[in-house]
Amino acid sequence: MSFHAITDVFFDLDHTLWDFDKNSGLAFERVFKKHQTPIKVTAFLEVYEPINLEYWRLFRNDKVSKQNLRRGRLGDTFKHFNINYTNDLLDEMADSYIDELPVDNHLFEGALDILDYLSEKYTLHIITNGFEEVQFKKLKNSGIINYFKSVTTSENAGVKKPNPLIFHLALEKAKTNAINSVMIGDSLEADIKGAENVEMKTLFYNYRNEVITGKIVAVDMLSEIKMYL
Question: Most Cβ neighbours (<10 Å): which of 60, 94, 164, 192?
Fold first, then answer.
């Protein structure tokens, strides 16, 4: 795959630049303390993280609502520990978590360096399935919002990656086209296949060391993006 014609670089945010798992764990520490939750966060997260990823897959495919995502991922995890909270309490904890999530803003190793490097050569953008208010807080609080000319969220677009409409909207906002654009993200379904379906080039951030088949161009560390761009 040739990247010579690239003028615009689109990033996913969570799990690509913004270290979601680390920041989420710190947020849960405060939520558990506030609500006096009787289990350790480390044990909770081992069960929660795959459940959360599955709920996000369902959310991307419009199989669950925003409320059911926030409530269900908590409720299903607590049930594993034989804890059954009411929906009202789950909603209260979910709200607390959303409030706490943008407080810590650890980025992946090499994120600032690669943004500095790329911003001198390309115009940078964000395409994210995260909720608009929270995603803008993350961008601002982590100090990276000024790197990006445009930010396209699924709430703003009315559809989620990998739906082609969100990519077309992002390209329109960026005043560019797919041929001159590359998408960098951690999700093979949402970021890579979604972008390929609108004929954007792609770079897969494979920090989870997933098994890859086909002609997908992948990097294990953000610094490796320099080999291609």
Answer: 192
Question: Order of strands, edge to edge, in the sheet holding 201-205?
Answer: 148-153, 123-128, 8-11, 181-185, 201-205, 218-219
How many CA atoms does the CB half-sphere of 163 hold within 13 Å? 18
Same domain, 12 and 80: no
The span from the CA of 106 to the CA of 71, in Å, is 25
Residue 60 has pLDDT above 90, yes or no: no
Contact 180, 5 (CB under 8 A): yes
Q: What is the mean pLDDT of the chain?
A: 95
Q: What's this model's pTM, rounded to 2 decimal places?
A: 0.92
Q: Are residues 93 and 127 in the same domain?
A: no
